[in-house]
Write a structure and sequence with these properties.
Low-confidence stretches: none
Order of helices and strands: HHHHHHHHH
Number of helices: 9
Structural class: mainly alpha
Distance between the termini: 44 Å
Helix content: over 70%
Oligomer: single chain
Shape: elongated
């Protein structure tokens, strides 16, 4: 939803409904959204069936017209690294070991551990 919102907002700028200087003076989140998705744009654009707003067709040109766009995008690059750490942590929380660590006495954790040990033996 965030990508579609900012792509739509940037469409207003591209079509002249909102002045781009004013838009960029009061908003900065579009730069962070672009910085976060930019490493995946080529792949997303090559995938069939991906919603068009994920191509950032309107967002990308608005962000790149900002005089210090490249510096801003690079400064937001740690957001991608942080989101990867969150995704990795989320994956580990879904594993049985994390469930066991969070709820050592829960019946669900014991059943999951038992299933895992049967599969491994």
């Amino acid at each position: 939803m965030v990508a579609s919102y900012w792509d739509m907002a940037c469409a207003f700028v591209l079509f002249g409904a909102i002045n781009d200087e004013m838009f960029n003076a009061i908003n900065t989140e579009q730069v962070a959204v672009y910085a976060k998705l930019q490493p995946f744009l080529a792949e997303l654009r090559g995938m069939p069936g991906v919603p068009p707003y994920l191509f950032l067709k309107h967002l990308e040109p608005v962000v790149l017209r900002i005089p210090d766009a490249q510096e801003r995008v690079v400064s937001d690059a740690p957001l991608h690294e942080e989101s990867q750490r969150v995704a990795d942590r989320s994956q580990s929380l879904r594993s049985g070991r994390s469930l066991r660590a969070r709820c050592p006495t829960s019946a669900a954790a014991r059943r999951l551990e038992l299933r895992r040990s049967r599969l491994l033996s």
